[in-house]
Every structure is written in structure tokens, then in C-alpha cells.
Amino acid sequence: MALSEFALRKAKPREKAYKLADGGGLHVLIQPGGSKLWRFKYRFGGKEKLLSFGPYPLVTIAKAREKRDEAKRLLLDGTDPGVKKKLDKLAAETEARQTFGLIADEYSTACKIAVQPKAHWPSQPGC
């Protein structure tokens, strides 16, 4: 049975973590501390896996269902959604590092920083 906004808001923490199922492998894990986390349980390569979508209410019911459906499409295409998520994150981090490297190169070129005695350092503003 599909979860409702009311049922999620009403769900209270217990002594141990528990799950409320939404269907299609999607559930919300309610922690003893009160946090509610969206999870998607699936099988790939003969192994059971778990994919996190984020905390409720930051990730709404509709958004969690949308992410579940996207993960199911990836599974139908023969792609592990967990691996794809990790690769996307790695690509974003790599791009951010390359951006910083480019900015640092431009800065050092603009300031003509080289191995020089301190007395000869450029006195340009901002360098």
C-alpha cells in the first residue's frame, strides 16, 4: 500500500529502527532518533542492494517515487543504479577539482608567481 503524507508525518520513532513500505522496493526507514530516510531495495547481479534517496521531508514522497522509477529504468537497461550514482558523484568531484586547478593556474599566471626571493615578489594588488 502506498504511503501518504499524513502517515509519514504521523510516524513516530520507536526503540529500534523500522520501515514503512511504499511499494516497488521503496520504503522509509524511521530511526530511533526520529530521522526518516528514503531507501530503495533492489537486486542486481544476483545480490540484494540498497540505495538511499535522502531524508524526509527534504525528499518528498513524489520525488522519492520519481527516483525509484528512474532506478528501475536503469535496472531494465542493465545498469546498477548504485554504481551510476557513485560514478555521477565522482564525475562532479573531478569536474570541481579541474575547475579549481584552472583557476589556480590563471591566478599564478596573472601574478607571475615563480620561485624568487621574497624581495622580488610582485606587488600587484590581489596577489
Automatic annotation (TrEMBL):
Origin: domain of life: Bacteria
Keywords for the protein's UniProt record, in alphabetical order:
DNA integration
Give the matching Gene3D superfamilies: Integrase, DNA-binding domain (3.30.160.390)
Q: Name one GO biological process term.
A: DNA integration
Question: Residue ranges of the Integrase DNA-binding domain?
Answer: 4-86
Keyword match Ribonucleoprotein: no
* Family of this protein: Belongs to the 'phage' integrase family.
| Protein known as | DUF4102 domain-containing protein
Q: Could you tell me which species this protein originates from?
A: Aquicoccus porphyridii
Lineage runs: Bacteria, Pseudomonadati, Pseudomonadota, Alphaproteobacteria, Rhodobacterales
